[in-house]
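Our collaborator T.R. sent over the components below with a one-line note: 'Predict the complex.' Nothing else. No constraints on interfaces, no templates requested, no preferences about which chain binds where. So this is a plain run: every listed entity goes in together, and whatever single assembly comes back becomes the starting point for the next discussion.
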Amino acid sequence: MGPAEGQYSDPQFLVLASLAGSPKHGHAMLDDIERMCGARPGPGTLYGAIARLEQQGLIEPLPAEDRRRPYRLTEAGERAFTAKLKTLQRIVRYGARRLAPA
Amino acid sequence: MSDRRHHWLTRLYPASWRRRYGDEMDQLLRQRCSWKDALDIVKAASIERLLYFQTTGVETMQTFAGGVGVLARKPSAIAPMVMSLSALVVVLVAIAVAGTKPQPDEGAAAHIWQLLMAGQLPILGWFVLHWLRRDFKAGLAVLGMQIAAIVAALLPVWMLGL
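Returned assembly:
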């Protein structure tokens, strides 16, 4: 089953977006992503994205607080997120222009 | 944390994954676990097992970077080459003893040759599955050596029609 109409489904991008504001642990990220795009990823999807981002050095774990481990963006993560945002903005601009009535 | 104390859904993940993220996942599941979440974890755990079972988090993010020299010394790299070269020696000894005339019955040498050549195939398969994706370039170079050894063992048999 694919994502619902209008739903944005790039879990890694959503995790980067969530951590761009401040460090967060898993549960806070899920709540934040739900607020941001209206859909809540599953815990498996979230931790799949966290593992891949950590492997790429785009996020890093902070010391655990009561078995909940917060994560934050690394410098490389901030750069990657900025670049992805720019690309997304370009796509949005092109898409909106193409859909606009002539 | 003892593995038995993990949530049953967390236990679907590979051990290395559980060591790194198990406690955090348990914590999430303690707060909320719908059937959709359960399905999502089953899917994600299968993906971790199938695609990333050796590369969880920073702990194992370092891919194997030992180069050809180090990789060629791994048992699954050496064994097929040793088996092919042993098969080659068996053929050469058999030729030296019995000549190149085809024998009416397959002798002990032929059986040993067949065992050595067939026996290395599972090891070769393991090498490809285990090492090639960790260090593709070095893995390919070692695979080339293994194939060269196989060709060396096959060549006299094929050329002399043994």
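Summary for T.R.: The helical segments of chain B are 15-31, 35-51, 67-71, 75-98, 108-131, 136-159.
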